[in-house]
Design goal:
By secondary structure, this protein is α+β, with helices and mostly antiparallel strands. The chain contains 13 helices and 18 strands. Strands 7, 8, 9, 10, 11 and 12 form a 6-stranded antiparallel sheet that branches. Strands 1-6-2-3 form a 4-stranded antiparallel sheet, covered by helices on one side. Strands 14-16-17-18 form a 4-stranded parallel sheet, sandwiched between helices.
Length: 396
Amino acid sequence: MNIHEYQAKAILRAYGIHVPEGYPAFTVNDAVANAKRLGTPVMVVKAQIHAGGRGEAGGVKLAHSIDEVRQYAREMLGHKLVTRQTGPQGKKVNRVYIEAGCHIKKEYYLSFVVDRQAECVVMMGSEAGGMSIEDIAAKTPEKIIKEYIDPVIGLADFQARRMAFNLHFEGPAVNKAAAFMQDLYKVFIDKDCSLAETNPMVLTEEGDVVALDAKLNFDDSTMSRHPEILELRDITEEDDKERKAAAEGLNYVNLGGDVACMVNGAGLAMATVDIIKENGGEPANFLDVGGDSTPEKIVAAFNIMLEDNQVKGILINIFGGINRCDVIATGIVEAASLLSGGEEKFPIPVVVRLEGRNVEKGREILDKANIENLYPASDMDEGAKKVIALVNAGKK
């Protein structure tokens, strides 16, 4: 789960981390009122969307007057912002953040993230603040400094100070930077974050260490422990299909292509996405129906995949274990009937590969149903090639 910058900064502020004063605005009038409330000679108008790269896309503007705040807020609110992370479709800006400017002496990058290979949290820092971590890694990987954190001990004082020294903080700023790191680590742990990032973290001319930007992502599976975080959810920022899938208990990620897949098991789902791509197709989604599939769940999955005409073909790749192939097959038949008004046909090609528990019974159910636009496949590779060929044929 993601939240907006101003919401992340409110959490950081509660943990004693210095952030500039600022207020969210949903209308141009709100923006002007907030600018007057700040009363500073320089203000920053920031578009609030769940995506990075806002600055280079025109979503962060320095304002030196109330009139400029009004102008920038009017240009952003209600309009789409296209960044490197939104894709060409962009995201509509429904709110902006009006923040006081500060005297920046030096910018840094700092984040905490789970390193799955090392099986621990890692703190990453860099003097190349203001750039995305992907850019830093690609252009100057030697500038990324890492501290691996023992999950029992937590972030040790010497690690925070070592990071501060390696980032070339000097004098009293060393202790301030180390304290900043300890506080951000506490946020990461206390709030069950999957990412806690401030880019840039800045040293001001006054000698303060400040989070000029903030990004917090949270582990969805922990939200039952954090109702205060769940209240910050902005469903307008979420993919509509992903939101509907979550409500149905489906693990779904929209990948933007036109060849959909429905699979049981995350590993098999990732392999299916890969094999579609390898054979020249464009995956439309990652969809794991889980191990407790019912016919109703299969129907819901079809409805989500077929919404908005994005998908031109579907590959169903099931290896029956906890899931039974006959239950999956029954769901496929029901979906065909419901989608066609009882005629038992699919509006687009559907290729099915069944293997594992009750596979013969599942194949028999599909054979007897005689569903139009339904094609069998003996293995993953055949299934991927067949559905891609059918999609391409439909484009001609």
